[in-house]
Structure formats: structure tokens, C-alpha cells
Amino acid sequence: MAADIISSIFGDMTPLAAMIFLLIGALIMPAVQMFGKKHTVTWCVALLMVILSFVTDVILLTNDVEATYLGVKLNTYTTLMSMLFLIVLFLVVLVSNVSTETTKNHAGAYYALLFGATLGMLFVASSSSLLTIFVGVELTSISSYALVALKRKDGRASEAAVKYAIIGGMSTALTLYGISMIYGIAGSLEINDLANYVTFNDFTWMFGVGLICMIAGYGFKIAAVPFHMWAPDVYEGAATPVSMFLATGSKKMGLAVFIQVFMAMFIISATAGSIFGLTVQYIFAIIAAITMTVGNVVAIAQPNIKRMLAYSSIAQAGYILIILAVMTPQAEAAGIFHMFTHVFMKGGAFLIVGGLICAGIGEKISDYKGLAKRSPFLAAAMMLFLFSLAGIPPLAGFTSKFFLFASAVGTPGAADGTWIWLAFIAILNSAISLYYYARVVKAMYIEKGETTEKIKIPTIFTVAIVVCLVFVIVLGVYPDLIFGYCEQATEFLL
Amino acid sequence: MIAEFTWLIPFIPMMCFLMIGIFGRKTPEKGGYIAIAGALLSFLIALAISIEYLGSDEFANGIAIESSIRWFEIGDYTLNLGYYVDGLTCVMMLFSSFISTLIFIYSIGYMHDQGERKNRYYAEVSLFLTGMLGLIVSSNFLELFIFWEVMGLCSYLLIGFWSFRHDNGDEASANAASAAKKAFLVTRMGDVCLMGGLFIFLNLFHSLDYSAMFESVEAVAAANPGLFTLALCLMFGGVIGKSAQFPLHDWLPDAMAGPTTVSSLIHAATMVKAGVYLVARGFPLYVQDVNVMLFVAIIGGITAFIAATMALNNMNIKKVLAYSTISQLGYMILSLGAGGYLWALGYEELGALGFFAGCFHMMNHAFFKALLFMGSGSVIHGCGTEDMRLMGGLFKKMKITATTMLFGCLAIAGIPIFSGFWSKDLVIDTAMNAFNNGADGAAIWFLILWLLAVITAFMTAFYMFRMWFMTFMGEPRENAQHCHGESPKTMTTPLIILAGFALVSGLFMFFGLTDMLAFEGEAIDGVEHGIELFTNPFTYMTIILAILGIGIAYMMYVKKTMDPGKFNKNGESWLYIALTKRWWFPDLYNQISWKLGYGVAKGVNYIDRQIVDGTVNGLSSAVVGGGDVMSKVQTGHVQDYSSVVLFGVSVLSVLILVTFALLGGF
Amino acid sequence: MSMILSSLILVPLIGAIIALFMGGSREAYSKYVAIGFSAITLIIATLLMLGIFGDFADLGESFVWIDTSAFIMNYALSVDGLSILMVFLTALLCLLVNVFSLDEHRENNNYFYALIMAMEVGLMGVYMAADYFLFYIMWEVTLIPMYFMISWYGGPRRHYSAIKFFIYTHVASLVMLIGIFAMGYESVAAGGVVDFSFEAIKNGIGAVAVETQSLIFALLFFGFMVKMPSVPFHTWLPDAHTEAPTEGSVLLAGVMLKMGSYGIIRICIEALPEAAAYWQWVIIAIALVSIIYGAYGCIAQTDLKKMVAFSSISHMGMVMLGIGCLSDAGITFAVFQMFAHGLITAMLFMVCGMTGHKVGTREIPLLGGLAGKMPIYATFMMIAFMASLGLPGLVGFWGEFPVIMAFYEFILDNDVIWMLLFCMLSLMLTAGYYLWAMQRTLFGPETKKIDLSKAHDVGHYEFAVLLVLAILVALFGVWPDGALQFIDDYVDLLAFTGVI
Amino acid sequence: MIPMEYFLILAAILFVIGAYGVLTKSNAIVVLMCIELMLNAANINFVTFAAFNYDIAGQAFVIMSISVAAAEVAVGIAILLNAYKLRKTTELDDAKLTSMRW
Fold first, then answer.
1. Theoretical Cys-Cys bridge with C304: which of A386, B596, C178, C352, CB 3.0 to 4.6 Å?
2. What is the pTM of this model?
3. What share of chain C is helix, strand, coil (3-state, %, to 5)?
């Protein structure tokens, strides 16, 4: 019903429906700020646009609408991914107005950039050509450089932005070079054609160079080791809502690219067992293993909680990269599901950090001492988010990791064990991660703080945290809520 | 059928234990009377059952009254719970409960000044009695084993009765604690062997019921000779532990740290008798293997001898008695071994004689050893020390004690008419029989054993009288001077009763005891063998040796015409030192237990901390350290980051080529 | 469908939640809430055990929980002779622990009771789960309360011990998780849907090649082995026990370690019998090493609780030995030993933990002559030690004797009679360390190294709890059939299905 | 006709020069310019392939990438400007721009 209304409004452009709201949002936000005077008004309008977009998307998702408009696709996959990005945007926008870190003077530009970045993500999710994907990714990237820098009075933010922009620019160049190589050898930018090419042709050096350059370029987006170096600095320097946006949204977009480009390209040849396909699988397996190990091990050494969360994000990306080694639809579904749970748990953790910064608590783990006394709710929520990240049942992080590791072990009827070593590395990493998550829990619950004064964080933050918390628990005990869609989405890979 | 109530015999002391434990504190003597009543009641029931059994057809036909109920199953094997009454059971339960009753009565006097602790004492002795009586009436080896262990526990508790807050200070309590531990541990070693034997038996016989096992023993032994022998040896290991046989005899002298009544209980009525009883009970099994019987006899002979030697120069009145117990137990085991050996060779009558002699000696020993211990208890009670060097001349002050103890000494020394004479000479006779009839290689062993037994008889007479003389004759020394006279009636009455038994219990063999202690219906003729003793020249030899021993003791310690110092070079001869050091057995045990126990444990602990746990901790610190090191790569220079990216690209390029090549792509 | 089994999980869960929110002024009443709810749980468990609610087979509950294209996971609970004992033990110990801790005054008492109840939830879930997913979740759920229990209420090195416990066992359970996946995948044909219920996987996995089965077995076994724990993966246990509060130790040793052996029987043996036969020698070897090593470890310890912790390793080795025999008797009495050890070790830890509160230290060299000062304490300690060293007439003996009996049959079949020596050695060592410890703590001269003037004997609540345990220890010692009847039913079933 | 390889080699050289500049030049502006070089190297590739493959997509891509590059530089310069305001430097190896590390 609702889907019909949307179709009747947007007509052929239904695939663009959710994006259109964002686009409108991005365009009008500066104007709204100008006329609205009060930044709360700006915030309300922004929130409205996000909600409109989100509702549209959810309606399309739940009604299984399929359409294509000028190469922009609309199917379960695209709507699902869009929903993920919109959830992130929603959470970020929700808290931006009360966060002391985000700019109020340039609220219009801030929201416009957020919308722009999200628009890019949605665009990427709906694309099936390297060209459009490239454009979408750049839209997001460039917006996020600016977003990071938008904490204008903070030297650390501008330093982070410089680093981010330079590494980002170089990655863009690498990507572009890689795409050009692949374009040259395969003669097309459409993923379908590329998949065909890979299936029916032998490995050539040019293709190899292109592939590696692309992996490196997009690896930067998901902060895969060794392209991860920017992430901790940027997450630390940026305003916490922005860090959250990067860690949950921008990184997920990178993973979406990995799924749409590399997985789509190689899944056929991997299933067929060609050596070329297997080589690529191994490459991804190695990257995955290194990424999660480095992420987790280095996270132990971090005294700053935002940096720690950054490294933990790197590790989580490593877990998700398992799906590119395994290359099965089952794995893809698990990966998408893990992205969702990761949004809530990592987002929740960042929200708490952001909220506490508003309340004057520092970013050091040692600043969290005695938090359980000062704010039992925040401490409990933080604990649940962290345990969920560590994969402790019955929280969402466990369930999604359960699916992920399950896919690494094999498929029904064939626990063949090719990637079982990856599963072992992953579980060892899980255990390592427990160490640093538990360190925070220990600080909050067990160590005595200097004061037992109660903490008050903005109500909006609490609302956002509760939303995350609810999903972390609900997705843990009832994953079918989303996992069904994740499985459906895998049908639209090619 | 009163035999149906056999289960009451252990059950009553058990109830007494619980009653005393729960509300004994509130009764007079802190539960002492409950304990006495329980023991007495058990005795009376045992008496009634014995009378009934002895008058029944079963007894006439040489079969046991047996009844059991299913307890539970281990795999395919059903374990039962029941009672088993035959002549041996009757004899055992009668003297155990009777002597225990007397000891409990005696305790009223002896433990009078112990205050609140009496409660614990009476509870524990009741449990002890439960253990012994339960062991006696058990219908299978597992049940026996359970009670066997219960006794082990009780001995632990009772030996350690003064292991804290000892009246004589801290060192004494430390001693008691260590002695209790040693007693339990050493007997436990035997118990573990016994348990091992039971595994094999259970597997071989598919049951541990006496009746079932005795029925099929021949077939089973023939089918699995190796395992059967092993099982017998292991089972005998239990005996060695419990009955303090060589080489596990060392705990018994230490066990003197407990109250004297407890020693009396352990040595006379319970505990150490259990080992002998186990051999007697398992006799049908033992006689299947002639070599095991030889082994048993040898252990018995060596024990008898070694223990007697160590008693020769001991100055502690209770320890002398302890050694004498070990020595006498050696006699019993020797007799059973030799008898079994003969039976196994087919000399059924001689074998039955050996069996009878062993059990008979056990009974006699129970009476006179209870007497001796309680007498020594009376002495200790009177003069407050156990060191004989501080006694002397007590005869005048404690006439009843001295006289009754004299009876005991005469009995143990083997002076005719007294009980010990009959049984001991039958034992020595059995050893001789085994020499005369034994197979070629083994016979010589029995000659040696016979010699050892005879020498032991001489030594026994000597050290017992040495003890008696040192205690009761001569000049009153230090403690004897403040001795406050004879003990109360509760203590002397049991002594007098037991003295009577020490005098006459040997004569039971002429009045039907032989029928009760008949092995497989092979009853020997008590009168015939009694008379035969006096036609045997060796009997006179042992009598003369015993008198000689008494004489030497008299010369040394009363007349002082012989100086003991001359023989031991004033305590410096190696033999004397060896004896005071107990042939270095305690040192050996200590070495073994420290090296094998604590030493290995230290090693294990070191490995555990350093290697096993060290690996875990090392891994974790490696990870944490790795984190520190790797985070240093994050220099903050954006161009370093770029370099890493480009480096990563190059590594990936190499990697993709190598992987492709390894997978066989080229 | 009856909800009896679910109620065993729900009741403590509600208790945990209520206790959790009873902070501030209501904190003092949280203990009564905990006691109330655990008492209800115990009543339900007891009635269940007595068969009031009908046959165990009729009580199973099963709902599809997660339904994806590759897996089906169920919320499935069931009890049988094996689980009912553990369920009963859990319910019993949780109640006893709650009562035991009544006298203790600690900060945030409500959290403490919430943790105990939360642990009960997890334990109940593990012992009743009939689905691997549920089993695993519940398995992990037990970890967190224990972690907090140690790191909040524990001793001086609690942080180290807690995190070690947490990570060590977490790794193990993750390895087990991989085993579960592998087993699930192998149990269906290619392209099929994996039903993670015990029943479905058991039916499916039988047809798989023994090599594959044995690999899966190894993964699962590792997970369980660490939990049990077996040498050489035991080092988390002594640390955890030393630092954990008494109540935590009781639950940890009393019921949590049993999760390991329960898992081995329930999963490794039941579903993968052929693989079990393949690994039999390894299991036996691990068991023997654990027994002996644990016993030697005990001798060297100076901390009473650490000693008891090592003794747990040794005794759980005995369980492993029984399981390794793969025979009717072996498994029956391995289970019995689990039950027996649960009762005994609870007592042991209560007594040894009490030493710390009452006397001020648990270091054996500093103690001595406590029997005079604290006779009731000494009596219970002695009962516990004696039961643990396998004194016949107490429950520990029936966990030891028959297991070795079963092992004897094994060694007889394999003609390695010398292996009996290990068992005998272990029995000796066990007696040795307990007696030595008693000699040094209870007996001998009263210690002067520490101030005994404040030492006091057991309190009323502690006395009641210990008495209940002592009575049970004696009761099942003379009436092992009380527990065996349940196990027999279960083992008969195993034998019937050809597993052993 | 000029062989395709020549173009590709040119592009590759350009790319490497750009990369070298990114790694070595300490001035952020110069680094941004080097990134432009790298982007343009890729653009040359695209154009070449588009020309040789008779495919229009490559050229379209170039148009896109040029605009992307422009946007990137614009934002980059703005960021640098801001950084210069706060930290008074555009030298990348200056301690003021490497404050976040480890």
C-alpha cells in the first residue's frame, strides 16, 4: 500500500526516492539555518528529512520493491544497505544538536555535509557500475573530510582532517588508477561484465595491478591493515558524532563496495574453484587475518577510548572481510548482518563516549573509573555494547559473529575446512578483544573513581543510546528481524 | 530367628555414635554410658546369635547363615549389603564386643578428667566399634572394605585425639597429629592395595559376596592364575597395612600417641585384628595359591621377629606393648600362612590346625593385650608418665594392676596354662609342620620361620617381663614416688575380668572352640592337639626359652646382677642404635614420602607455575607487548602512513603472485 | 506443552532482575529475594526430580527460535537422568550459597545476589538445553557473572584472575563453537538446512566418516576439557578459586566445572561415539595425567583454597577417566562422581573459604591447632576432606571406586595392568595431601603466627548449610542408588542406542 | 599511430612521480598537487583505453574524475587553510601536525 504511494509519487524515479530526500536535505540545510536562526529548528528539519528518507526506505524494503532507473537499482540489497546508512545518519543527527563537540554556527553546513555523505553511501549501495560507485564513494569521502574539519576551533580536528584528506586523496588516486587498469583490460565498467571477464579469462598482470590498487583504495575506506593508519587519528580528532559516523557509516559503505565489487566479481569463479578466484580469496583471507589481529592487538595498548574503539573498528572490519575469503551467499548475509549489529554496538559505544564528553568526562579509559557509581545506566549500557563487540551471548554481536564464523567453517553439508584456520584466528582475536573491552568494564565497575558525583548527560543522548541498546539486545535474541532480509539481499549480488 | 537381626550388631553402636554426637553432651559422662550400653547390647545380641547359630543345623553342617539385599550395581556387577554368620564371625564378634564393652567401662575411669572432650571420645569409639562389628558381620568384601575404612578414619581420629590442646603441651599435640596422619596414611596404602585386589576379584568373580566367591573360587583361580595371584597379593597388602605387618608396621608404635584406652581398642578388639580377620575370612581364596601362602607366612615370621627386637630396649611402656602387638600379629599371620600353605598342598588337617591356631591366637591375644594395655593405662593414670625409667616399685601401690598385668605377661610369654601358651605353641607347631611337609624349595623357609618364631618367643618373654619388672619392682623412681595409688574400680574391674580370661581363654580349645574355628568343616580335635603339645619336645624348648627370658629380665632389672649395658656397650652398639632407630624404618619412610611426595610435588608445582602457567602468561604478555610495539608504528606522520599504504600495495602484489604460483596458476 | 523446564530458567532470572534493581535502601532485602527465588527453583527442581510433573520425556520444550536458510536454531529444553542430577545440584547449591552468605556484609549486596541468580540461569540453561545454539549461549552466560563475582568480591589478585578466567574459558568455548558449526554442517547433506537441535545433529552425524568425526570431536573436547579443567589447560582454575569469594568458588567448582564433563558426555560421547573410541587413549591419558598432576599440585600448595582447587582438577580427572572407559559402569559413575564432587567440593570451598574470614588467612603454614578453637568448623572440614579423599560410607567413595573398577576393565582389555598403579598412587596422594593439610591446620599446637583471638566458629547460617551438605554427603554415601537410579536410566538409553 | 603502451608508460611514470611527491614533500600543498598528478595519471589511462577500445565510458569517467579531483583539492585546501590558522604550519612533518599518534 505504502509502497504504491511512493511509486505513484516518484514514478520511474522510485529507486532514487530515499536519495531525493537526502538531496533535498543537503540543499536546503544552509538556507534553513539562515532563516531558522535557532539551530534547533535546523536540527528538526534535518531530522525530519532523515526520517522521511528512512521511512521511504523501510517501506520499500518491507514491500520487496524491485526497480531500476538509469542504472540505479532498487532491490532488497540496496534498500537494506540504505536503511543501515540511514540508521547511522539518524543516530548522528539525533545527537548532533546537543553534542558540545559539533559546530552550531555552521549547523546548516554540518547537516548538509552529513546528508551529502549519506547520499553518497546510498548511491554506492544502489550502483552496479564502477563509475557510479567511484562517484558515490568520493561524494562520501570528500564530505567526510570536511565533516572532520568542521570542528573548526580544535587543532586536533584540523590535524586529523589534513591527514584524512591526504591519505584519502592518495587512496582515491590509487583506486582510480586501479579502475583504469581493469577498465583497460576488461573493456567495461559494469560489474556484471567484469564478473564475466574474470570467469572466462586468465589472470593477467594488468588486471592484477588494477585489482590490488582497487583493494588498496577501498581498503582505505574500511581501514583494512595496512591501509588503516589514518583511522585512529581521525576518530580521535573528529567530533565524536562524526567519529561515529565514520566508524559505522563510512566504513560500512566501504564494506558494501567490497561486497558489490569484489565479491560480485569473483563469487562465480570462486564457486567454480578457478585458481584465479582462489588466489583472490586467499588474498582477502590474509588481509582479513592481519586486519583483525593488528586491530585487536594494538587496541590493547590504547589509553584513549576513541582510539581504542577505532582499532576495534579495524578489527571488526577484519571479521567482516572473512566473507570475502569465504565468498558464499551465506557469508555475505552474515557479513551484512554483522554490519547492522556493528552499527548498533559500536554506534552505542561512541554515543556514550560522546555523551560523556558533553558531561565533561575525558576520553581516557582512566577517566571512566567508577563510572558505574556515577551513572549506572551508562556503565551498564557501555558494558553491554563492549561485551556485544566482544561477542558475548546473548547480545547482537555474538549472534552476528556466530553467523560469520559459521560461514568461515563451511556450508551445510561441507565443513570442508579451507577457511577454518581463518575462523580460528578470528576466535583468538575475539579472545584478545575481550581483554581490552574488559579493561574498560573493569575501570567502570571495579576501580574506584575519584568522585561519586552523579553524571547527567543530555536526554537525547540517552534516547539514542537506548535505541542502540534495544537493538543490541533484540538482534541478539531475535536476529530474524533483520537476518531474513540479509539473506534475501544476497540474491541481488549480481 | 534372631540371626535375622545380625545387622543390629553394627547398627546399635552406629546409633550410639549419632546419639552421643547429637546430644551426648547433655548426658552424664558425656555419653559414656550410652557407649557402654551400646557395646553391651551388641555383645548380648552377638551372644544370642552365636548361641542360636551354634545350635542350628547350619552350624552342624558347616555352612554359614547369610542374607543380603541388593545395594546397587556397577556396570554388570551387583553389589549387595548383608550379613554373614559362621563360626569365625561368632568368635570375632563376641570377643570384639565383649572387650570393647570392658574398655568402654574402663574409659569411664580413665578418661574421667577429660571434660568436654569425652563427648568426642565416646562418639568416636562407638563409631570405631561400628566399624569393627560391621566388618565382622559383612557378607561381602566391599562391605567389609567400607567398614575397614571407617575404622581407619576412627583410628585417625582417636590416635589424634590429643592432637590439639594436649595436656602435655604443644609438642605432644604435634606428635599426636603426626602420628594420626601416619597411621591413616600407612594403613591407607594398604587399603589402596586391598581396593586394587577387590577390583580384580570383582572382575573375576562378578561378585564380591563371600558365598558366591567361595563357591566358584577353584574354577576362577584355575582360569586366571596370574590375576588371581595378583589379587591375593594386593589383598594381603591391605592386611599388611592394617595389621601393621612388615614393612608397613611402623605406624603402630607411633599410634601410641592416643589415649591408652584407644590403643587398647586398636590392639585388642578392633583395627589390627581386622587384617588377620581378612586373611581368615579370605582363607578359601588364599589356599588356592600356595606361593601366596608362603609369602604370607614369611611376612608374618619376619614381622614377629623384627617387632620383638625393637621391643627389647624400648623405654616407653606403651611402645613395648605396641611392638609386642605387632610381633603377636606376626604370629597369627605366620600361622595362617603356614596353615594355608599346608592346606594348599593337600594336608587338610594340618592346614586346618594352622587356621585354628591363627584365629585362636588372635582371640587370646585380644584378651591379654586388652588387659596389658589397660593395665599400662592404669599405671600411666597413676603416675602420669609413659617412661618406664621413671617408674618402678609400683607393685606396692597398685596391687590389682600389677597382679592382673602379671597375668597378662605370663599369658603373652607363653607360660603353660595361660592362654598365650596354647595358641602360640600351636602356631610354632604349624610352622614346624610346614617344614616337615613342605615342598622342597619352600620347606627351608619354614624352618627359618620356625626358628624366628622360637627366638621371638624367647624375646617376648624377656621384654614383657623387663617391662613388668621395670614398672612394678625395684626402687620407686621419680614419677612412681608421687603415684597416687590404685586406679578407681571402673578401671580395675575390667582388669580383673580380663585377667580371668587371660588365664582361661586358652582352655576354650578343649571346649568346642575348635568347632567354631573350623575351616571348611575340617574341625580339628582340640583335646588331641592339646595333649599332643605336651608330647612335643619343641614345646618344652619354648617353655624353657620363655622361662629363660623371664629369668634374664629378672636378673637385669630386679636383681641387677646382669648389667644390660654390657650387652649394648652402654647404648652405643650398632644393634642398640638400630633398635632405637627402629631399624631406620621411620627415616626411610620420611625420605620416601618427602622425596616422592613433597619433592615431586615441588617439581610439579614449579612446572605448573613456570611452564604451564608461564606459557599462558607469556602468551598474554606477548600479545600486550606486541600491542605496545605495534602502536609505535603509528608515528603521527601522515607521510609514514602513505608509505605504509604503498608498501602494503607492493606486498600485496608480491603476495598475489606468490599465492597464484603456489596454487599452481602458472 | 508444559513450561516446567522454562520455569527453572525464568524463576532465577526474575530473581536476578529483581535483586539487581534493589539498590540503595532496599539493598538489605535483596538476599531474601535471592533466597526466595532460589528456594522456589529448588522446589521445582526437586519435584521434577521426584517425577511429580510426569515423565522426563514428556516435559521437553522446543520452539524454533532462529530460522535462516542455512540453520534452524531452537529454544529447546529437555531433561533426562543425566541433566536432572545437575539441575538439582545447581538449584541446591545456589540456594545454599545464598543462605551461606547471609552473614556476610559487603558493598552492593544486591549485585552479589543478582550475580548468583544470573549464574543459576546460565547453569540451568546449560544443563537443560537440547539445542546447540541455546547450549552455547547459556554456556557463555555463566561466564559474565563469574567474572564480576571474582573481580568485585574477590581477593587481592582478583583482576588478574578474573580476566584470566574470562579469556581462557572464552577461547575454549569459541573453539567448541567452531566444533559445533563443523558438526552441524557435517550432519546434513549439501545444501540442506542445519537443525541445531541435539536430536537432529545426533541423527545426522552418525553417517559421517570417522576421521571427520574425530576432528570435530577434538574441537569440542578441547572446549570442554578447559572447562573441566584438565591438565595442561587448567591454570585458570587455581587462580580463579584463590581469588573468588567463597560463594563464587562453590558455584564455580560445584557446578560450573561440571559443565565441561556434562558437555563431554552429552555431546562428545552421545553424538560422536565412534570418535570417542578413536580418542579413547588420549582421553584416558589426559585423565590420568590430570589425576596425578592435580594431586601432586595439591601437596605443594600453601593456600587452602588453592589446594582444594587442585584437588578439583584431580577429581575431575577421575570423571574424565570414567568417561574415557566408554563403558556402562564408567559413564554411570563418572556422572555420579560429578554429582558427588559437586556436593563435596561445595563443602570444601565453604570450609576453606571460611578459614579466610574467620581466621584471617588461608595460608596453611600460618595455621595450626584450629580444632581446639573452632571445633564445629574442624568437624565439617574433616567431613569434607574425608569425603573428598574417598572414605567409604561417604559419597566420594562411590565416585572413585567404581570408576577405577571400570578403568580396571579397560586396562584388562588392553593388557596394561600396570596402569592400575596410577590409580593407586592417586588415591594415596589424595589421602596424603588432605591429611597433611589437616595436620597442619586443625591439629598440632595452636598457631602463634597469627592472632587467633578474633577467630570464631561457624555462624548459624553457615552451620545450617554445611549440615545440609554433610547430611547429603552421608546420605548418598550409604544410598548411592538415590542418584544412581537416574543415571542408570540415562546410561541404559545410551547403551540402547549403541553409543557404549 | 602511437602504440597504447606509450600512453600507459607515461601514465605510470606520472603516477610514480606523484606517489614519490606524496611520500617525500613536506609541504601539504605540494602533496595535494602530487595527488593531482596521480589522479591525472589515471585519467590518461582512461582516455587511452577509451580511445583504443572505442568505448565512451572511459571518457565519461575522466570527466567525473576531473570534477572529483577538483572538489577534493578545494576541500583539501580549505582544510589546510583551517589547519594553518590553528597550527600556523602546513609542513606535514611539523610536530604540530603529528600530535596524534600511538
1. C352
2. 0.92
3. 75, 5, 20
Mean of the pLDDT values across residues B596-610? 87
The C-alpha cell of B148 is what?
575397614
Strands lying side by side in the sheet with C194-195: C61-67, C71-77, C194-195
The grid coordinates listed for B35 are 557407649
Cβ–Cβ contact B439 with A under 8 A: no
Across the interface, whether the CB atoms of C484 and B73 are under 8 A apart is answered yes
Q: Do B637 and D98 count as a contact with CB atoms less than 8 A apart?
A: yes
Interface of D with A in 68-87 (CB under 8 A): 68-69, 71-72, 75-76, 78-80, 82-83, 85-87
Distance from C-alpha of D9 to C-alpha of D44, rounded to nearest angstrom: 10
Beta-sheet pairing, C71-77 with C61-67? antiparallel
Are B589 and B555 in a shared domain?
no
In a domain, B460, yes or no: yes
Shortest Cα–Cα distance, B618 to chain A (Å): 14
* Chain B residues lying within 8 Å of C286, measured CB to CB: none
pLDDT band at B571 (very low <50, low <70, confident <90, very high): low
Q: Considering the domain boundaries, does residue B301 fall inside one?
A: yes
Q: Which domain holds residue B590?
A: 581-628
Q: Would you call the peptide bond into A226 cis, given omega within 30 degrees of 0 as the criterion?
A: yes
DSSP H or E run through C127: helix C109-128
Query: In which region does residue A64 sit, left (phi positive, over 0), alpha (psi from -120 to 50) or beta (all else)?
Result: left
In chain D, what are the domains? Answer: 4-97 (1.10.287.3510)
Q: Which of A405, A417, A438 comes nearest C166 by C-beta?
A: A438
Q: Please check whether residues B403 and B437 belong to one and the same domain.
A: yes
Inter-chain contact A442–C151, Cβ cutoff 8 Å? yes
Q: Answer yes or no: is pLDDT of B438 > 80.
A: no
Q: Is residue C409 part of a domain?
A: yes
Question: Does residue C188 sit at the A interface (CB-CB below 8 Å)?
Answer: yes
The minimal CB distance from D93 to the residues B631, B637, B646 is found for B637
pLDDT at A177: 93
| Domain parsing of chain A, residue ranges | 2-490
Bridge partners of residue B66, in order along the sequence: B84
A222 contact residues in B (CB cutoff 8 A): none
- Of residues B427 and B570, the one with the higher pLDDT is B427
Nearest to A326 by CA among A417, A261, A256, A400: A417
Nearest-10 Cα torsion for A205, A209, A215, A216 = 150
- The amino acid that residue B387 corresponds to is D
**Structure confidence at residue C460 (pLDDT):** 87
∠ CA B438-B443-B445, rounded to 5°: 140
Rounded Cα distance between A144 and A146, Å, is 5
Give the cell for residue D59: 571518457
In a domain, C483, yes or no: yes
Is residue C131 a part of any domain in this protein?
Answer: no
Quick check: helix, strand or coil at residue B81?
strand
Q: Has residue B476 been placed in a domain? A: yes
User: Measured between CB atoms, which of B634, B642, B646 is closest to D101?
Assistant: B634
- The most distant pair of C-alpha atoms in chain A lies apart, rounded to whole Å, by 68
Helix H or strand E segment including B575: helix B574-580
Residues in chain A: 494
Considering CB atoms only, which of C136, C174, C185 is closest to A431? C174
Q: What is the pLDDT of residue B494?
A: 85
Pick among D82, D87, D98 to test the A interface (most A CBs inside 10 A): D82
List C-alpha distances in Å: C22 to B112, C32, C99.
56, 11, 18
Query: Residue B196 is placed in which grid cell?
Result: 586394587
Whether B101 is covered by a domain: the verdict is no
Q: Can you give the pLDDT at residue D37?
A: 92
- Quick check: B646 contacting D, CB < 8 Å? yes
Domain count within chain B: 3
Alpha-carbon distance of C398 to B284, in angstroms, equals 28
Report the C-alpha gap between B466 and B481 in whole angstroms.
20
